[in-house]
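Following up on my earlier thread - several people asked me to post the actual chain instead of describing it. Fair enough. Here it is, all 470 residues.
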Amino acid sequence: MPTIHANAHAKAGMIARLNHPGYDRWASQIRATGGCRQPIHLRGKIDHYDRATGTLLHRYTTKHEPDGILRVPCKTRRATRCPSCAETYRADTYHLIRAGLIGGKGVPETVTAHPTLFVTLTAPTFGTVHTRREHNGKVQPCHARRNATTCPHGRVLSCTERHSKDDPRLGEPLCPDCYDYTASVLFNALAPLLWKRFADSVRRHLAKLGGLALKDLRHHLTLSFAKVAEYQRRGVVHLHAVIRLDTPGGPASPPPAWATTDTLTQAIQHAAHAVTATAPAHEDQPERVLRWGTQLDIRPITLNGDLTEQAVAGYISKYATKAAECVGTLDRRINPLDRRINPLDNLDAFNLRDHPKRLIAECMRLGALPELAELRLTNWAHMLGFRGHFSTRSRRYSTTLGALRAARQHHTRDNDITTGRLPLFDEDTILVISEWQYAGKGYSAGDQIIAAALTGTRLPELAGVADESL
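Reply from S.P.:
Thanks for posting it. Predicted structure:
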């Protein structure tokens, strides 16, 4: 258990909470959040009415709760904001992905016979960056070049260091002035469009390989997928996707015999190299045609092999809780008040390394141009231009995150009935009406210390509060 050194304000808050008459209920609320670091405060009520007579049968109100509020998990997917809720999101994503590979959660086990591939679509290069490579377990020099040239900015484009895994220079350009920050930002902004065009192209090529018109393909098979975006250390996104072929009704039965794994591979290879997205001309720059990188990884998923369904589900779910933090950027939008005339200078307050700072500054510079207004680069500067969803799936891939959350809510309701907090009603005869208002989030300094002890979670840094693990 951590040893806490708290300031006077935190100590006073702890004493007041521990001696409060409603402490037991408060502690129960905290445990129910599962260790959420920033629980949402709700104020309101839930009424249960008899459908036939309109009689009010039961009312729950937060007026009787500690502080007059109900605390619920924030449900963020970002591990930097709330590790506990992010872990729940990761676990849900894992089960969602795995169900689409081996069945379960409403998906038949026969789905294992469907053509299924694990695909990684990469970003192109925008300049030479520091990297870490291993060969036979030995770390290789970063960019060792015997006859290294000097760039127009006077830097030798060579690096003989063997970088450690935590070297902050990984992903940073050998010459920042040579690096194409504009193209990097625009690629991130257009990555969702590239994915859409990629999926459309896969469908068109499948129709061609099957001897069908595109409009008739939907009567023979459907393309199901689940994907996640992963940031590289250099600040651009790669997309990892599980892509599966089903019948039009979904995974209940396999696709036509001609729709094989090889057929799907051909369609993916064609689409990855064929699709493009164009960034509008701006300032004195012409239109930019952006496409996926040359590195395309396509691997079959097997029950017993190098790439199992467990490995794929674990890999994808791991990145579902991350954003651009690995680049060293921010995990929240930049306040409009921080968007000044010279964004590069004003970003100094965020204590960023030069590379992410330049990427953010380029987003803000390009975002101010009317020709690029539709890309909303200023709003997504903290994400280095990427504005797509990090984790998405097609409609019939497997279960949904909503269904998994509903199952947890049903379990909580059953527990409330068992403990007597909620009467047992016939759901078919009851009308439930809820009224909720947002009343804040998070903890006071004293409450946060007690909450960490109750849930066994690590205490985040607080002003005047230290957490020393024994």
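The first helix runs from residue 8 to 18. That should answer part of your original question.
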